[in-house]
Structures are given as structure tokens and as C-alpha cells.
Amino acid sequence: MLPNASGKVVVTVGRRVKTRVEEEGKIEEINVELPHEDLPPWEEKNLVWVGKGIPRVDGFEKCTGKAKYTYDIHLPGMLYGKILRCPHPHARLIRLDTSKAQRLSGVKAILSQENAPPIPWYNDSFLFDRTLRCVGEEVAAVAAVDEYIARDALDMIEAEYESLPFVVDPEEALRPGAPPVRPGGNLLDGKPIIYSRGEIEQGFDEADLIIEENFSTQVQAHACMETHGSVVNWEGDHLTIWESTQGVSDVREGMAKALGIPISKVRVIKDFMGGGFGSKTREGKYTVIAALLAKMTGRPVKLMLDRKEEFYATGHRPSSLQYVKAGVKKDGSLTAIYLRSIGACGAYETPLFPSKFSMIDALARPYRELYHCPNVKTEVYPVYNNIPVHTAQRAPGHVEGTFALEQVMDQAAHQLGMDPIALRMKNYALKDQVEDFPYTRKALDQCYQKGAEKIQWEKRNKKPGEKKALICEGIGMAGQIWGGGGGPPAYAIIKINQDGTANLLTGTQDIGTGSKTVFVQIASEELGISPKDITITLGDTETTPYAPRSSGSRTVPSVGPAVRSAAADAKRQLLDLAGSILDSKAEDLAIREGQIYLKNNPTRKIPLKEITQKMGNNMIMGVGSRGPNPPQAAINVFGAQFAHVAVNTATGEVRVLKVVSIHDAGRVINSMTLNNQIEGGIVQGMGYGLMEEVIWDKGTGIMLTPNLHAYKLPTMLDIPEVVPGVAEGSDPANNIGAKGIGEPPKIPTAPAIANAIYNAIGVRLKELPITPDKVLRALKI
Amino acid sequence: MLPNASGKVVVTVGRRVKTRVEEEGKIEEINVELPHEDLPPWEEKNLVWVGKGIPRVDGFEKCTGKAKYTYDIHLPGMLYGKILRCPHPHARLIRLDTSKAQRLSGVKAILSQENAPPIPWYNDSFLFDRTLRCVGEEVAAVAAVDEYIARDALDMIEAEYESLPFVVDPEEALRPGAPPVRPGGNLLDGKPIIYSRGEIEQGFDEADLIIEENFSTQVQAHACMETHGSVVNWEGDHLTIWESTQGVSDVREGMAKALGIPISKVRVIKDFMGGGFGSKTREGKYTVIAALLAKMTGRPVKLMLDRKEEFYATGHRPSSLQYVKAGVKKDGSLTAIYLRSIGACGAYETPLFPSKFSMIDALARPYRELYHCPNVKTEVYPVYNNIPVHTAQRAPGHVEGTFALEQVMDQAAHQLGMDPIALRMKNYALKDQVEDFPYTRKALDQCYQKGAEKIQWEKRNKKPGEKKALICEGIGMAGQIWGGGGGPPAYAIIKINQDGTANLLTGTQDIGTGSKTVFVQIASEELGISPKDITITLGDTETTPYAPRSSGSRTVPSVGPAVRSAAADAKRQLLDLAGSILDSKAEDLAIREGQIYLKNNPTRKIPLKEITQKMGNNMIMGVGSRGPNPPQAAINVFGAQFAHVAVNTATGEVRVLKVVSIHDAGRVINSMTLNNQIEGGIVQGMGYGLMEEVIWDKGTGIMLTPNLHAYKLPTMLDIPEVVPGVAEGSDPANNIGAKGIGEPPKIPTAPAIANAIYNAIGVRLKELPITPDKVLRALKI
Predict the structure, then answer these.
(1) Mutate to test the interface with A, among B240, B618, B625 (most CBs of A within 10 A)
(2) What is the pLDDT of residues A544-591, one digit of tens each?
(3) Is residue B636 part of a domain?
(4) Collapsing DSSP states into helix, strand and coil, what is residue A303?
(5) What ipTM was assigned to the predicted interfaces of this complex?
(6) Is A530 in the B-facing interface, judged by CB distances under 8 Å?
(7) B584 lies in a domain?
(8) How many domains does chain A have?
């Protein structure tokens, strides 16, 4: 039920994919037959490659610096693009004089509102607009023979602005009489997003204990190592874009639409990428600007953002204010959960999803979904303010919502005198609380149990803050629910070569997570060919079949089943060929570790290579697509994390000593890349919990933290001991049994740390990030 | 029945492809099921795009210089490779000192017999061998930071050779006691290649007239505008090669084998190419050398041959000596044809085909196939001599053989007092003369008739040389037979985009002939989408499905049917989707010019785009392969050419005024590219007939013509008026009805000119090229 790139809802029913198309209010349902049947689950005991922690297939390139990132693309005659950005939080551009810049030697083109096509962008704004609603908005762009000249040219552009009233603080923006960020009021769509089930007031009436708390979470930057950017090249009317992106197909479609050219004329390529975390799912203004500059000059253009632009112009995780009220009975059962929250959109709606799927509302999902609770109401106020637009970031909403919800649960357990895990098990949801569908699999109980063992849960302070010392240690935990089930459409092709090796093609991308390796393992497993003999090609819209963007932890569960399906299709053909050569029936044969053997007599075998040599050039090509998800079922990833912290009560410093992180993500394809994801999520979650914050100056609308000195990311020395793990087993949701693990480990990190701090010092930290000053302030109360 | 790249014979039986694998003397037959059924022929009256002369889809790139040839590939850190070549026609390398060159600043690697792996090459020789058998053989190679340093380094390598006896003239090479080019004698396999049917002596006994003539043809260079060469780049163990080649898949497989690495680790890319003509079907030594130098240095290497190397080291059309004896009855019917010929292989067997398919023997094919004749014997002597190895060139063998055969026919007609066309019709073959299979289609009679009309055949001199003048004009003609039917395997994929545009992928290459355009037209026709909305990707082994190399005029008839099949597969899915949306049965719908309409009510229609928008990302991907050729049938291209010449009897100069060229190549897909092929073939055939000749100095083994000054190619001023045409209609051999036209127009050009000269001046020129000195000499006899 997650929206896809085009704002269309894909639901799966039976063996067909039903696409519900919503356009201009009309809803139509159409069926698309999937070309391939699904396959039975792998037999656990026979697995050869799946589950192994094999090193990344592209490890050599990464370690030697040979890996080609978008930054590394150099084309002959290439120009460099730079963007002039608005210095005011709200202004009208009244004069722009580019004539001096135009005369600078080496400047080849200048683009602005005066000569750019009026390409719609955000709400009712344009690529270049005379009304500018945040610091950093695009005013003009330059293409020059080198970066230095391009920068100099920016300095020579004269821009005159009329200042307009502005508002940065989201609560202020909601007040009557606040400066209007946009026509139509600062509340997105003029009303809160409301979800409700049961009778919330009745629920509170039934409660023995009511918990009421206020929480706030900050703006977090994605801080990608590789900044956003593009290299573009026109060949006639054919546009090639090298883009640092999580979604080559999305960029392709977005660019075709923005430029008004056929999709078939746009090729988007991404090989290696240095981080995205949700911020690189679509083309940016910079992509379109680069394409226009290249068109104007007839030369390739490279336009990569610098670090300051990366902070200003690529989105961020929005801040939130959450008022939570929860009712529980004495036995711990939840009777009601109420959330009222304010989320700061920035100056525009995010272009990622239409407003009804707003990521601002996503923070209410854990309240609705994590626990069994009959009466739930969430009321979310998305508000415009004069800062750049927010976007998705690793587990959007869930990270913010879970920070508050899981502290409320911890507090309830404390007040009821219950073990926090016992309280959670008391409210264990056995089906999807919103749709009432059963889960395809839920092993959260195993996660609680395994995590508790590994952190030595029994060693936590029985009474929070019971030990008074300079350094107080504590243990806390939190759980999580996430989508991560993926789904169709996704396609793959496998070509078998004469020497028994294979080439695998699919239109997804490896955004640094190890997708290449995982897909090679899946193909290896199904085909019986060693991973070293399979070469994978990803991230090229022109030559590979469609696969979705890498977001929502969907890459493995969406594309993996298509890869297996393609491998199975190739295997069928290989076994047919082998059967005709060996005078056996294809169904009596199998392939394993490069050998074709008789199932009922595995000692009779022949190297696969001897069979493939005989196919000559009659290439075997397997084509696969992902089968549909099981109908009327919910696919979720669950997990529990446990933090062991030490709090210095004199300095307020929090040190995370250890995090145990156990998730039910279905079958593990590669234990090494899975652990990498868990480690990365914990580090980013810890940064969110303890140090990272984008700070806006309310008086000027300027960001005070637009660089890696002011914006505090965790470093190697901050990283705790991480104990990753999984609830063993396979999820029947798809033919590989795997769900996504990219986002889940981030979700419960901050609340586990906050609960551990509470366990250590007996005070609850409800404002993120939990910096030493806040700890000291809390201790003095 | 043509051998494919691996020396395997592919024959087609029914709906399956039977691959006869011949390895180490064992023959096995295996069946490979083709994934798709063939399609019914197009309905002529409904054709929208097929047949039109639409301009090339890549015309813009070519005209603006944006087209990327192998020469244009620049990679960061790229080195330049150069090859030191042997200056002797036969020698043993006794000392090689590279130490001075090694010390030259900028030199990064030197490769020679001393440090290169012993990669087998030709017969029993190696990539670098101590025994060198022709001028130009590879002795050492250098990689340096620029081309100039690389050249300087070559000059600094000291090589000492022991001279060995050598022989250049092929007749001399066959004589007892001739210097041995290789161990085992100078006659390839020690015996002539003999073909025989009927009773040749009995045939001559039955004849009323015997014609006996000797002919000789010269060595012709391919003279590609873009010389041979490669740019190679290793990323870990993955090798990418940009190669100027007619066969990306062949280069891929050849390189994997030469380097002993998996095929899956080799990627070969060719975008644009400046000519191949048969000489660029496989990797060269330069390709392997570039890969080894790149491996040694850890840097990309560009190794492009210079013009002199292009003449020496890339093969050529071999010379021939042909003794022909033909018997005819008074009514013109042929009773016997006998050929004895000597062909010069050069110092090695060509690596292209095993010797039993030797191109040297191909010159006997027209003798065996062009006319109905019960008694035929051909006896071909392939001989080694100390010049570089020959290779395929546009219609190998047929060009040489037809030059002689069609003059013999002309001579017979003259001596019998018959119209040369009438004589040919008298001997019109109604089935394949070797296999006894019927032709799928043969409209050579139409070609004769149409050609005769267009040249005004009746205006020729009734008596050859009857008019005595300074400038004597004459008209002559010749016919041709060629394979050109193509065949499986070939595969294609078509992806339909949400905006109703499409991307077409296939692993063939456009070697300058217009394949991209033709395949887009075929897909357009089948899908009902405009060619401007289809983007094609070719020439990348990693991302596109297998298609054969572009040789043997096979590209259109092999790959075209696979493209149509893929388009039909996509159309089926599109119509299914449209049916579910429009509440119609898919079989009641059709697509034409971007509109989906009801077959029984074409006014009810909906733009395709509205349907494709609804598929969301549920991509429609059509997969197609070529169906088999009809069983027990011969597929041939036929044609007739008519030349109108003017001979200056004082200077001996021959001026071709007009050539009419009519072929039965089945259906025309693009009339413009077809005419281009005819024009190109005629120009190259005229160069062969009148001016081009690679001359070897018999005393030194050195080539006297290794540049475009000494080697005389036709220029724009030499080109005659060309009237191209076809025998209308479609060939049932495959689902697009088309055969190949790349090679046929070259075949009958030289004999048509020679016959026209005979008609003009009454003397017959039997030695190629027909230069003024030979004309004068002939006139004085």
C-alpha cells in the first residue's frame, strides 16, 4: 500500500497486479498479468550461496578507488555548472543583471527566470521563480569552462530583491496573522491529517493510567558523502544523464516530463554512489538546470553541488512537535493512543509524494501500527515555513514517531511497575491494526527475547537512576515496525554465456548497500553457478529492465524475487538443453556448484560448461519478474534494539557503550551486507539521538550548520559496540523469503538510547538531540 | 549453411534450431527450442513504415561530428599503445633489447615474446613468436603516456633477425623446392579443395562449344576510413573493450578465450564505426596486446593502428588465378564447368573460418551455384606465401569467381551469337544446384528484365567493338548469387515506456549500414509507434541480447525477424492491457500510428499513450528471437548489373558512365539505406575493377602501396550514375520478408564493366584491375 513513483497505489491481488490509478479524482482499477509464476521457497538445507557473508562483488573497485561515482565522470569538452542561490528567506526578485558575468571569458551560458522555460516545480512555483521562499532557492545558473570561472561569474551577477515577511518556527507559522509562506495559508491543504479508529475518549475512560508527554525532534541532514549532482550530455535529441541517484527510472521519467521529451530519449546512468538516505530519489532542479545549460551550449555539463548547497538544497528530515496521550489498564493493555503533532514542511510540499501521503503524516504510523490498540487517533498538522523543503530520510516518520511512542511505553511500564518487554508483549499485535490483515510473518517476540539475552536485560537498573555516581550506566530498549516488504513491478534478465558464466541485468541501483552482491548471490543460488562467474549490470535505464527506486527498504524484496525468477527461467532452458544432450528428462536434472547432475543419482554429473559450450550462439536468456505479494496480507519488518549507555552526570555527556539490534527481516541473503545495514542504521540513529541538528536562525532564516564542522556527525570514536542479529527464518511474502533491512535499524535507536538514559539517571529526555546541556538541565529539575 | 563464429554449423529444421557441433572430429546434433513462434507476413497494403526511405535515426550525430567512434574514446589516465613490427618477410628473431626504450620517460610497459603469455594465434604460432613469416608481424609493443613517446620507444627497441628464405608469388610458392612458408608445405592441408558433381568429361564431350580462359584477380585492401583498434580498461577482473568491430560478441568470446577469463567478465562496446567490409569480425592481436598492456600498467590503453598498419596487419581480399573451361550446346545450355584456381592465403590460415570453409574456396561457389549445369568440377589450391594473412572482404570469393565466370558466359554468348541475357535465361537454375533444395524465392529474371530496360540494353553494340573511335562506348552486364538469407540465433528486447515510447535493444551492431534505422522501422511497423518514439541500443555485449556479427549480409535478415518478434510480444501485452481497460477483447484491437483502435470500427480509437500511462511501472517488455529458416530450402539473394562505359582508345582509360543495379533481396525495409548499400557496393566494385591493387615487391616482401596515395581508391569524381532497384516482393524465408543487400552489389560490378569494355572495344580484359596500360596492351594485340 505504499505509493510508487507516480503517486499511484499498487495493490496486489492473486497472481495479478492491480494498479489503482488516481488521476484528477477519478479512480480506475486495471489488471496487469505478471509474465511469470512465482516459485516455491528454497529448501533451507540445500542453500549454497544464500545466507553466506560473501564479500562485495564490487569491493575491489571501492577499495582501489577505481569505482566510478558521478563526480568521476569526465566528458570531452565538458563545462561546469554553478547555481546562484537566494540569500533571503522570503523575497521577490526585482532585478537581475547577468551582463557582466556574460562577458567573463570562459562563461558559455547563463540561465535564469528570464530565459529558462517555465518548468513547473513544487506547488505552483517554477524551476526559476521571481518569488523565493527560502534561503538557497535557485535564482540563476552559469556554465563555464571550469569551476572557478563559474564561481566568479556567479559573483558578477547582480540580483536585487524585495524582502518579504517570513517565518521559520513551525508553531509560529501556524498562528493567526503569521507571515504567509504561500498563498492559501501555512497549514498544508488547510486542515490536519486525521486518522481515527475506535472511540478515543471511551478508550481513555477505560484506562487505569494516562500518560501525557510532549516530545520534539529536530531537523536532520542526510549529509551524503557524495553530494547531489549530475553530468549531462545531449547527442542530438537524446539525453544521457549520469546522476547520483537512488532511482534511475524516476529521474528518467521526471526529466522527460520536465523537459517535455519522450521517455525513450532519456538515459539515466548511475554506477557507484556515495550515499542517498532518501534524498536522492528524484531529479533535482540542478539536474534540469544542467540539461538546459548543456542544450544551450551544445556541450556536456557537470553540475555537482558543493557541501553548503548539499545542506541547503537537497531536503532534510523534518522537525516535529509531538503531544502524546496514552491510556493503559493496570494489566498493561493499551486502551487508547492519541497523537497531535506539528511537522515543518519547509516552503513547499515535497515533490516526492502527493500531500495525502505526506511524509509529515508518516510519523503517526507507529502509533497506529506498532501495538494492538482498539482506540487510536492521530492528528497531524503539516505546516509551511520559510526553510527549504523537507524530503524522505531513512525510515521517514517512523524514526520521529517511534522516539516518542517508545518512551511513552517505557514510561507506562515504569509507572505500572512492569518489565517494558512484558508491557510490549501484552500489547503484541497479531494483525495489521489499520487494514486488519494478518502479517505474512511476525517474529518480533523472538527479537525481544534474543535482544534481551544479548544485552543481558536482567542487568539493567531495577529502579531507574537508582545508582548515584559520576558515571551512571543504564540499559533501555525500543521496538520498531516498518514496511519493507517491497513488491512488484521489478524485472530482471539473465544471459548464459557459452563458457557457463552469466550476465545479470536489472534496472535497480546499488546505492552503497550491497545490492549487486545480494542479487548475484540469489542468481547463483538458483542457477547453481558460482558468484564469481556472474557479472551484474545495474543502474542504466536504457539497457536494463525496470526496477523500482531504492527507497523504502524495498530493493532486495522487490528486485530479488525477479532475479530469482529470471534465474529459474534460464535454468529451465539450461536443463532442457542438458536433457536433450544427456538423453534425460529435464525434470530429472538439477544444477549445483557448476555441475549438472541426475537428481536421483548425484554422482552422475557433468560440468555445466560442457553443456553451455554446445549451445553455440543460441543464447539462453532468462527473463523474470517479481510475483505479486500475497493478497489480503500485511508485510512488515519488525525489530527490537537494546542500548547500554553511560551518562556522565557532571558533564551531561552520553556515551553509547553497546547496541544490540535484532530484526525480523525474513531470510538473510548476505549476512555481511545485512550487518553493514544494521551498523549504519545504528550510527545514523545515534547521531540523530545525541548530536546531529540542522539549526535555522529564526531572525534571518539562515542555516547555522551548513558544513561538517558545525553539523556534528558521529565519527569512528563515537561508534559503540554493535551486536547485530536476526529472528531466524524466511518470510513467505515472496519467493526469496527476504524483507528489507535498510531503514529499520535506525528507527528504534534514539528511543532505546533515551530509555537507557532514563534507566541510568531516572530522568526522561524528550527533546532531540540529547546533547549534554539538555541532560544537565534535566538532571537539575 | 554458413559457419558461424565458432566454426559450428547451424542448420534449421522445422521450428527448432539444430546446431551441429563439430569438435575434434566428433559431430553431435542438438536441438534448441526457439522461445517464440514465427509470425505471419505483414499485409503489404497496411505497411506504414516498412519500405519508406526514412533518414537515419543517427544522422544528426554523424552530420554534426557528435558520433562516437572508437577513436573518440578517452579515459582518464589512458596510455597509448604502439606495436613494433617485423621488417622482414621471413625471419627468426634472435635478439631483442628493450632496455633503452624501457628507460625513456613516459614509457609504462613493454611487451614482447619475452614477457607475454604464450597465447596461440594462427595455425601453431603465438601472439608474439620468434619465427616471423611476413613483413608487419608483431614483435613487441609499448604503452606510453602519449603516442609520440610510444613511437620514440619503438625506435629505441633493438631487434636482431636471422633472415630466412621467403616466397611472395603464389604460383612460385606451389613449385617444388619453393621456400617453405611453414612446416608442412605451402599447399594448405597438402591438397586442393575439390567439388564435383555429374561427369565433367562427359559434359565437355556433349558440348558444341568449349570456352577456355585464364583470369587473374589482385589483392584488394579494405581501406576502412576508421583504422582497426581498441581502447581497453580493466576494473578489477572485469575487462571493457571499445572496439571498432563488426562483431561485438565474437570479440567478447575471442578475448575471453585468449586471456583465459570468463566471458561474463568481458564487455565489448561499439557505437559508431568507420568501415569494416569483413576485416573487423574478430579481435586482433592489437586487441589482446592492448588488454595485456592495460593489465601490466593498471591503466586504460588505447591502441589504434595507423594507416600503414591498417594496410599491413588487418587482412585483405586474396588474389586469385583462375583457369576456367566451360562447355555449351548450340542452344546455349551449359554442359560442363571446370575451374582450377590458386588462391594466396598469406603466411597463415585465416582465423576466421577453419580451412574447410576457407574463403579461398568461396570463389568456386558462383561456378557451382549461379547456373543450372549438371556437370561441374572446381579444384582450388589455397597456398601459403610470405605476406600477411588474408581475410573476408565484402562477398568473399564471389567477387573473384564472378569476375571470371560472367566473362566466360559473355564470351560464350558472343561466340554463339546469342543475347547474353538469353543465354543466362537458358541456364536459369530453378533450385539450389548443390543441395537440390528449392529457393524460397528467386526473381533474377525480373532483375535481368528491369535492368535491361533501365540501361537500354538494345542500344549496346550489336557487334563488340564495331564502332572505331577515340572514345568507344559499350554496354555489358553480369549477374550474381549470394547467401544473404541470415538465420538464427538472434534476439531482441523492446521495453514500452509509460508515455507510449519504446526502447529497443539487440546485440548486433550498426557498422555504418543503417541497421539502427532499419530495426527501428521494423519495430515501429509491428508496434504501431512512430520511429521517432523508439530509441535503439546496439553494440554492447553486456547489456543487449545476443545477435550475430555483421557479416555475410546477415544483419537485417537475422536480427530483423527477432526485432519484429519482440515487438509482436510487446504488442500482445499492450493489447491485453488495452483490452482490460477498454472492456474489449485483445484480439479485436490493433495499433496503428500511435492509436489503439477497434479492428471492426477503426474510427473508435484511443491514443496508445493513454493506455501506457495506466501501466504505471508495470513495464511491458517484449522479448523476441528469430524463428528458424524454412527447412529444406535455399535462401539466396540474386541480382543483375548493367554497366555503360566509355573507353579512350588512345589513353586506355575506362570511364564508367552508368551502372544499373537490380537485386532480389526480398522486401525493402528502408529504400534509402538499401540504395546506399547498392551505391557503396558499386563504387567498391568499380575500384576493384579499374584501379585498386595492393602490390607486393617480390624481391623484398614489402608492400609498395601501404597508403592512400599509392593505393588508388575511387573518388567522388570517378563515381558513375547509379540506378539502383529491386525485384519487388517479399521472400517467405523469414517473418520480415527481407534478405541482405550489403555484399551482392559488389559481386557483378567488375565483370559487368569488363563485359561492357568488350562490347565497346571488342577485346576482353581478364586481369584485374583493368588499368589503362592493360587496355592499351590488349588493344594492340
Answers:
(1) B618
(2) 999 999 999 999 999 999 999 999 999 999 999 999 888 899 999 999
(3) yes
(4) strand
(5) 0.88
(6) no
(7) yes
(8) 3
